[in-house]
From TrEMBL:
GO biological process entries: methylation
PANTHER family noted in UniProt: 12S RRNA N4-METHYLCYTIDINE METHYLTRANSFERASE, S-ADENOSYL-METHYLTRANSFERASE MRAW
Descriptive protein name: Ribosomal RNA small subunit methyltransferase H
Gene for this chain: rsmH
Biased composition (Basic and acidic residues): 283-293
Family label: Belongs to the methyltransferase superfamily. RsmH family.
Any GO molecular function: methyltransferase activity
One family name in Pfam for this protein: Methyltransf_5
Keyword Transferase: yes
Amino acid sequence: MTSAPHAPVLLAEVLEALAPAPGDVMIDATFGAGGYTRALLKTGARVIALDRDPTVQPHADAVAADFPGRFQLVRTPFSGLAEAFAGSDADRLDGAVFDIGVSSMQLDQAERGFSFMRDGPLDMRMSDEGETAADIVNTWDHGPLAHILKLYGEERQSGRVATAILRRRVEQPFTRTLDLAETVEKALGGRRGAPIHPATRTFQALRIAVNDELGELERGLEAAEATLAPGGRLAVVTFHSLEDRIVKAFLAQRSGNAPGGSRHAPVATDTRKPTFALQFKGAREATEQERAANPRARSAKLRAAVRTQAPAWAPMAGRAAA
């Protein structure tokens, strides 16, 4: 049995939320190194794992060898959840877990281009298809580039960073991570004792844009809503406010707890029935012990809900588009 490169965050809390039992069918929407999957399989459940990253295959092979007949990996992003389940021979989905964002395993692979601390090709794709981060910084106009830096990276000086990128690429296109990180650092006047590297927000924005992470999260949540059986459980772990706001808003709306309008602009009564019941108010966070042992857990939040018998709501497209 191979060991996972990193520990799954909030594992005990996720298992409590999913309450897996022998014979249950679970979807691990972010397989990664298989941490959640292995824990679910050890309870006797069956797991359909999703991941668009081709480099996870060795971990999947190891899990399949350790738990024959109860595990399969499907190469797909979140949005393919319903199709992945339909392609299995299972007739009921009892639970689904999402672990949002880039994994420490991906950050540690310099050749993937996710990290501004390690030199590598400016790629950032979680799959092996589509536009790269280099494509964006070398071809996008100032307006769209500044927009995603502000929207996805929450970079207050997005215009200044975009200007610096466009000026530099005239001399030489960007191909390496450290080259881009240095350009952003210079544009923002250096580190100046800042608690985070000046390029942190730019790299985050590019990664989210390259992988359409927020759009995939929204579509994945809707796919889980459409696929979970009544009584099925949903658990979502996020690490950033952008992601958590999407999950919070989705579950608030689908559980009938979304805030209403003001007295000046009242919201029309929604006749759709709640498709989820919240397991607990707010979000659960890691214990002090887990935070000390696993730095990745410091910003983690878990939200969980149980599927009702109400029909799924119609998907809403385009909400996270840049």
